[in-house]
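Researcher: We plan to redesign the surface later, but first we want a full-length starting point. Tokens attached.
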């Protein structure tokens, strides 16, 4: 089964620690891991180059994601990192619209949309996070809110470009809390978003992917990851522990 598992290391680990964790992950992975499972690591910007060098030198079948990217492509934007810089580093994926960025750095749907356009132009796969807060969840119309988030993130894209995107359903209240929605709820949300994208001819059964993120652990990964509509997981906390992360990968049947 085709699944993508992304380790979001967030603001943890300096580049030496990141190399260590990456090597431990690499050595612990069973060579027999199904080739259809894509394992992606998203460290801080400062670790991308070091890990990319290892992947390239050892020809590893592991992929790199950046945790964010600038909405600007070049120019006087101190502190930003551009898609061109990520492209040069052979970064395959980029997380955009993570709720921590929306919440703490005022990231808007408009800037997420710009980032998505820029990434697609450089053939870097955007991993677009969407999800409701606990307050929004209490509102009966939270599905409309989720559809709106998705719609705004892909505004203006050519239909054939949306195929390449990974959409990550990440309920804000489930991130780092140990709480998760019911499996049926995850399935319902993804089905609704799929239906919306199909109604706009934006969905490609072969390529468009939906993953789930929010307190994924070895205890719940088997159920979540073996559900057909779920194409993988975005894993935060548990990805910093190699044993747990490997158990999550191995729970895919
Ligand atoms: C995340 O950071 O996207 C995430 C899902 O975190 P956690 O797995 O810790 O809930």
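Model: Full-length starting sequence:
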């Amino acid at each position: 089964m085709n699944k993508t598992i992304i380790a979001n290391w967030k603001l943890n680990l300096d580049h030496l620690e990141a190399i260590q964790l990456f090597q431990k992950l690499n050595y612990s992975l069973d060579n027999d891991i199904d080739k259809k499972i894509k394992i992606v690591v998203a460290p801080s910007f400062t670790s991308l180059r070091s890990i990319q060098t290892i992947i390239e030198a050892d020809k590893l079948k592991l992929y790199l994601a950046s945790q964010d990217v600038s909405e600007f492509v070049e120019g006087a934007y101190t502190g930003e990192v551009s898609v061109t810089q990520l492209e040069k580093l052979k970064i395959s994926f980029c997380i955009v619209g993570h709720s921590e960025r929306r919440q703490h750095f005022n990231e808007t749907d408009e800037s997420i949309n710009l980032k998505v356009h820029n990434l697609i132009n450089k053939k870097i796969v955007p991993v677009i996070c969407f999800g409701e807060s606990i307050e929004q969840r209490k509102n009966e119309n939270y599905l409309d809110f989720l559809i709106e988030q998705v719609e705004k993130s892909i505004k203006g894209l050519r239909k054939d470009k949306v195929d390449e995107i990974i959409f990550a359903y990440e309920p804000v209240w489930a991130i780092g809390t140990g709480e998760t929605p019911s499996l049926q709820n995850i399935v319902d949300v993804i089905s609704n978003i799929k239906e919306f994208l199909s109604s706009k001819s934006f969905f490609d059964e072969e390529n468009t992917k939906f993953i789930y993120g929010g307190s994924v652990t070895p205890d719940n990964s088997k159920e979540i990851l073996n559900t057909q509509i779920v194409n993988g997981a975005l894993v935060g906390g548990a990805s910093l522990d190699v044993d747990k992360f490997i158990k999550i990968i191995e729970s895919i049947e």
